[in-house]
Amino acid sequence: MSKEIVNKVANSKLITIDLEEFYPEGERIIFDISKWLYQDIILKEKDFRESIQQHNWSQYQDNYIALTCSSGAIIPSWAYLLITTRLSPFTKKIVVGNLELLETVIFQEIISNLNFDNYKGKPVIIKGCANKPIPETAIVQLIENLIPYAKTIMFGEACSTVPLFKKR
Predict the structure, then answer these.
(1) How far is CA 60 from the centre of its chain?
(2) Residues 128 and 142 occupy one common structural domain
(3) Tens digit of pLDDT for each residue in 131-162?
(4) Number of domains in the chain
């Protein structure tokens, strides 16, 4: 007589949230404006505007852009704003900063649009492993939003979770 193997995890009321499932398609690009500076340090407005005018902005269609300046030059804020006016018709999101900040901003928007009523009174596992760059800040924000709703919050995989929160 053999016993039937029962998948207790599949039969439980656990809800797993895998932020990787929300990861939006689109290339993440660092747009370095230092190439448009005179001697990598000085922004000459006339030359800068000419470079912006001649650049092919359509190549960034449906991408996510992190604007930066790698030369360490002090860049007036209007320079990033001017670039944004050209990029925004083509891109999904633009930030001034690095790729980590870009991912954080992307996930802030995703998490702020989730319907947390679906997790009311339920045990929730936030999946820990991911093949895509999920910022830790996104997980923190997710937990902040889940606490008023979830019965319990755990982190990891169903077979080995770390308990984080239990409603009293």
Answers:
(1) 18
(2) yes
(3) 898 999 999 999 999 999 999 999 998 788 89
(4) 2
> Over the stretch 103-121, which tens digit does the pLDDT of each residue have?
999 999 999 999 999 999 9
List, in order, residues 6 or more apart from 92 with CB less than 8 Å away: 24, 26, 62, 63, 64
Structural domain of 85: 28-91
Closest C-alpha to 80, from 119, 104, 101, 52:
52
96 within domain boundaries:
no
| pTM for this model (two decimals) | 0.84
DSSP 122-162: -EEEEE---SS---HHHHHHHHHHHTTT-SEEEEEETTEEE
pLDDT band at 3 (very low <50, low <70, confident <90, very high): confident
- Residue with token string 């039969």: 11
Q: Is 40 helix (H, G, I), strand (E, B) or coil?
A: coil
**DSSP letter for each residue of 58-123:** GGGTT-EEEEE-TT-----HHHHHHHHHHHTTT-SEEEES-HHHHHHHHHHHHHHTS-GGGGTT-E
